[in-house]
Amino acid sequence: MNFVDLRSDTVTIPTPEMREAMAEAVVGDDVYGEDQTVNQLQEMAAAKMGKEAGLFVPSGTMGNLAAILAHCERGDEVIVGNLSHTFLYEAGGISALGGIHSCQIPNDPSGILAINDIRDAIRPDDPHHPITRLIVLENTHNRCGGVAITVEYMQSVNKLVNEHGLGLHLDGARIFNAAIALGVKPLDLVNTADSVTFCLSKGLCAPVGSVLCGSSNFIQRARRIRKQLGGGMRQVGILAAAGIVALETMVERLSEDHQRAKNLAQGLSQISALVLDPGTPKTNMVFLSIADDFHMNAVQVKDRLLQLGVKVGVTAPRRFRLVTHYWIDDAGIEQAVSAFSEVCR
Ligand code: TLP
């Protein structure tokens, strides 16, 4: 059975053009810095993010971890959102592997951290306290509905960061979705961040990989940390080649995923057993709940949908996340809506 897989945009398989580029990639030992294809991808990525240098890493998780480790010393504190991917879904790597303390402050439903909350969380210079070193933001914000964070907000955080001499890391796993949704250049969304990670392996369809970008000195530190983490890969131009195709061909089309997410939400809004989050979708993610009086929970609905060829993500006992991507076409959206209608009758 061909499934309509809405669990995540991480499920995307590479396009035929990517497979071709992978087969033909010129490679070398990237730990020696000799893989031309990796070097090309890193340069392209850095240019797109307006940073001096880039570092190809196996995952968004390693990109964020290497970045935070490169910004902080053991015992330093990083301010993160309580719904951020770094806090929720990265297996506590920053504390387990870096001895870095996290201060979690509430994410507003719009994905941001209130400026006053950040200001209040910055520690005074006192030997009782860890040293506040870094703020981590996320754009688009996954758990906050895939919402895009604006340039204006980034500027207001920048002001605070400068006042207090902090660093700013952006988990831009889906930064291109944010830029498309806001109608701005990715560069405008990241230029106040000291470092940014973006993923090639989500909506951009590459099989593996993210790129961490920042200043040359910063990337030099991050390169050593990547090695410590076991992320120094060898002839990895095979993967970087797909990343180059991703950056060249898959960015502009993300608007199609956003449109299909709207169509999906529109279709599902007609089903009385489902309650869509207000304003969903913001980008390529539709968030919804099962009405209180409906007799099935999300896992039961998910299992029935699976029998009808539709895979969905369950994020809470009565909640779903549905993510559109390159491999979901209009017929897939229709199939998903009719499967939900049948199960939630
Ligand atoms: N997110 C995955 C899951 O881990 C939840 C998904 O299906 O959305 N930052 C953000 C904002 C992410 O959404 C993700 C992946 C990552 C970082 C981590 O990327 P990978 O999976 O490459 O380590």
**What's the architecture of the largest domain, going by CATH?**
3-Layer(aba) Sandwich
Integer count of domains: 2
Give the amount of beta strand, in percent.
15-25%
The radius of gyration over CA amounts to: 20 Å
Oligomeric status of the shown chains? single chain
Just give the CATH class of the largest domain: Alpha Beta
Overall SS class = alpha/beta
Widest sheet: strand order? 2-8-7-6-5-3-4
Q: How many strands?
A: 13
What's the mean pLDDT score? 98
Overall spatial form:
globular
What summary fits the major beta sheet? 7 strands, mixed
Assigned CATH superfamily of the largest domain: Type I PLP-dependent aspartate aminotransferase-like (Major domain)
Strand/helix succession: EHHEHEHHEHEHEHHEEHHHEEHEEEH
Share in helix: 40-55%
Overview of the structural elements:
With 345 residues, this protein is of the alpha/beta class. It has two domains: 11-249, Aspartate Aminotransferase, domain 2, CATH 3.40.640; 253-343, Aspartate Aminotransferase, domain 1 (Alpha-Beta Complex). 42% of the residues lie in helices and 17% in strands. The protein has 14 helices and 13 strands. The chain has helices spanning 16-24, 36-49, 60-71, 85-89, 93-98, 115-121, 151-164, 175-182, 186-190, 216-228, 237-249, 254-268, 298-307, 330-343; strands at 4-5, 53-57, 77-81, 101-105, 132-138, 167-171, 195-199, 210-214, 274-276, 285-290, 310-311, 313-316, 319-323. It has a seven-stranded mixed beta sheet, sandwiched between helices. Strands 9-10-13-12 form a four-stranded antiparallel beta sheet. Helix 1 runs antiparallel to helix 11 and helix 2 packs parallel to helix 11. The chain starts with a strand and ends with a helix. The mean pLDDT is 98. The protein binds ligand TLP. Ligand TLP binds at residues 8, 10, 59-61, 85, 89, 138, 142, 171, 173, 199, 201, 210.
